[in-house]
Amino acid sequence: MIAAATRHGGVVALAGGIGAARFLRGLVQVVPDDALTVIVNTGDDLRLYGLHVSPDLDTITYTLGGGVHPDQGWGRADERHTVATELAERYGVPGWFTLGDRDLATHLVRTGMLADGATLSQATERIAAAWGLRLRLLPMTDDPVATMIDTTDGRTLHFQRWWVGERATPEVTAVRLDGAAAARPAPGVLDAIGDAAVVVLCPSNPVVSIGTILAVPGIREALVDRPVVGVSPIVGGRVVRGMADRLLPAVGADVSAAAVAGLYRDLLDGWVMDNADRGQVAAVAALGVATRVTDTIMATPEVSAALARTVLDLAAEVGRR
Ligand code: FO1
């Protein structure tokens, strides 16, 4: 089954941050690196101290490269904060978004390359190679896209200012993807999708991760005639991590596995849900989407690998339709 899914063209995964990284730890165990392309959300990217930080690209790179902070799921393991402390204590520069010393090296390499005229794709390729990644890691676009959050107290905040800076306290009235309409898919993105035997939607935030990738003109259209299988990021009506439960209402969707499948209904062929959501199978099947129910709580790389196998089995089934 798995060989079939990768024989004709590769596997493409659309990914956000931590949930995607956990899933990809499993996918790389069942798909050869040279058959795997990961397209990553860059709407979370932000400039800090003049540095270009790409949280989702770095979370995936560090996780698959074996250097991610094991408890946080983001940032580096064995990290120190000498620079951040000096910035705060000597220069009074607030550290609302923690950048550790090792993590700063990544942002210096990326920012230096961008300053020399390289693209985000080129910087990403260099950083991924330095971490020994052999799969292809692509930003969704090389153009600037910023996820902005409109709040009920009348402000508009960059996603990270809302999520990290204000601990997601302000209620959300709208999510806007500044720059998305003018953004072009990064080099290789549309070709990878066009050649894909299957496209996998990782269990990432449907509004500010997967939704952001789908908002880059050309990407959603390219997916319509490919076998697309996703993993629900919502289990038993709750988020496993992150804040999708705070953002789904802002796009008019319930916090449920079936509602998220509904957001992707125009392109989704298969939907993998947790055992807790067996009761949602009928609602998803009513969308014309095939389903699988399994353990999706990726407490270990073995569960991640089993989940990846389930996804590829379902992909092979829907691919034969
Ligand atoms: N998340 C936090 O909750 N607090 C932080 O200080 C923080 C810093 C940070 C630095 C680099 C990086 O790559 C990620 C970081 N994150 C932090 C996580 C980040 O906000 C989220 O992982 C994504 O943006 C959402 O997927």
Task: Predict the CATH topology.
Answer: Rossmann fold
Radius of gyration: 19 Å
Low-confidence stretches: 1-7
**Outline type:** globular
Strand order of the largest sheet: 5-2-1-9-10-13-14
Mean pLDDT: 96
CATH superfamily: CofD-like domains
What's the number of helices?
Answer: 14
Distance between the termini: 15 Å
Tally of distinct domains: 1
Structure description:
The chain has 321 residues and is α/β, with parallel strands linked by helices. The chain has a single domain, classed as Rossmann fold. The protein is 38% helix and 18% strand. It is built from 14 helices and 14 strands. The chain has helices at 2-7, 18-30, 55-65, 82-89, 101-115, 120-130, 159-165, 189-195, 210-214, 219-223, 244-247, 257-263, 281-285, 301-319; strands at residues 11-15, 36-40, 46-48, 51-53, 136-139, 146-151, 156-158, 172-178, 198-201, 228-231, 234-235, 238-239, 270-274, 290-294. The strands form 4 sheets. A 7-stranded parallel beta sheet has the order 5-2-1-9-10-13-14, sandwiched between helices. Strand 13, helix 13 (281-285) and strand 14 form a beta-alpha-beta unit. It starts with a helix and ends with a helix. The relative contact order is 0.15. Mean pLDDT is 96; it is low at 1-7. Ligand FO1 binds next to helix 3 and helix 7.
